[in-house]
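Dear colleague,

Thank you for sharing your sequence with our group. We've completed the structure prediction you requested, and as agreed, I am returning the results in plain text so they can be pasted directly into your records. Please verify that the sequence below matches your submission; if there's any discrepancy, let me know and we will rerun it promptly.
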Amino acid sequence: MINAWLLAAIVIALASVWVASVKAPQWARRARINARLREQAVDEDAVKSSWLGRLASQFTESSLARGDFEEIREAYAATGRGKEQAQVLYLLFCWLIPALAIMAGFAVFGLLGGMVVAVLAFLVPRRVIRGMGKAAELQQNLEAVELCHLTRMLIEAGLSLERVLRLIAAQGRAMLPMLAPRLDRFNRLMESGAERSQALDELGENRRIPVLRNYVVLMKQSSQLGAGVSHSLDQIIHEAQNVERNRIREETNRIGAKMTVVMMAFMLPALFSLIGGPAVISIAEALSR
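Please find the predicted structure tokens below.
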């Protein structure tokens, strides 16, 4: 009887050691992943559960709007919105609200005015959304330069890339407001067990952000070859500054051309009136005599 109890105690002790050393870390990791996924998907699940979310999903997946939605979705993705949110916003601002505006335009302005309102109602929202996407990409491109500065400083301090991006996401959110969601995504993928190259591909998936794309390519090469990145980061920063300087110079030249049009439209008539007004008055008085 004593031998049986002793054997049972040994089996239970070995089982507890196995559970504590092998299964407990797996259960803890799975719990963390599920908690993060639930926290991330709260808004998306709420959108999916609503009738508007289901309608938007069915409409954007149809052949009528699939191509148009893909272009708009890229602009919404640049602003940090998920696919489900982009579907609902696309349905609202690109179809439902324009349809109401068109009906109101035909009722108030008649046939010709309604046609003008219809054209504006379908073109203006799409141009505004694309402009928002381009502005977000430009802002993220500028923030990527600051990301390169912070990465170089922290890597020179001896930190790994995972710790660098985790620290930047936690402490540099005020400096990188548009890039912070992308860094959070990278950190979630790394903590869930994804490979570094896969997480970096997710970070630099938008090719219209060249500085961030070059940053991702450099980090992937560094992880594969084990080379230093400080000098390469300096080159990326220097190239980005030159590109931004050229862009500002081009914008300045465009402002000069725009000001010429403004002067011709508003200032030259006033100048002609100021100079030619007395002459016209003198001619009129001479003719009246």
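Summary note from our side: The mean pLDDT is 80.

Kind regards,
the structure core
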